[in-house]
Design brief:
Elements lengths: L2 E3 L8 E3 L6 E8 L2 E3 L11 E3 L2 E3 L7 E3 L8 E7 L6 E6 L3 E3 L1 H7 L15 H4 L2
Length: 126
């Protein structure tokens, strides 16, 4: 069963990876986006005309990645002994975002563009 998350990991905090193979320093929370322009040709059949696919890409280029939408993703600096820190994005799949935090993280509502929603709901109460 996945652990439900109600708060973000703090900027600059250091954590051990789930398997204990490395540690990482959190730079900040981020969204994993699916880029339709990265689909390999000719496997990008997104619009059909009669029997043959059209290679025109219809709709938004970037959309929330369905595989990681319910899990927290962070821009991190991987800290490995004996090597330079490496910046990357990790998604913590064993964790699940609470409904309120998921709505803040991947909201489709126009009201989410309001500057009052810059902080997640749990962090705003502290």
């Amino acid at each position: 069963m996945a652990l439900q998350v109600d708060v973000l990991q703090d900027h600059g905090s250091e954590h051990c990876s789930p398997g204990g193979q490395y540690s990482y320093r959190v730079i900040g929370a981020c969204c994993r986006l699916f880029d339709r322009e990265e689909l390999p040709w000719p496997c990008c059949r997104l619009a059909w005309r009669s029997k043959e696919p059209s290679w025109r890409r219809i709709g938004r280029r970037f959309v929330a990645d369905l595989a990681s939408r319910r899990c927290p993703s962070y821009a991190v600096e991987v800290l490995q002994p004996g090597s330079r820190p490496t910046r990357t994005v990790i998604t913590l799949f064993p964790q699940r975002l609470s409904p309120a935090l998921q709505e803040w993280w991947y909201s489709k509502q126009p009201a989410s563009l309001d500057p009052a929603f810059q902080r997640p709901p749990a962090a705003a109460t502290h």
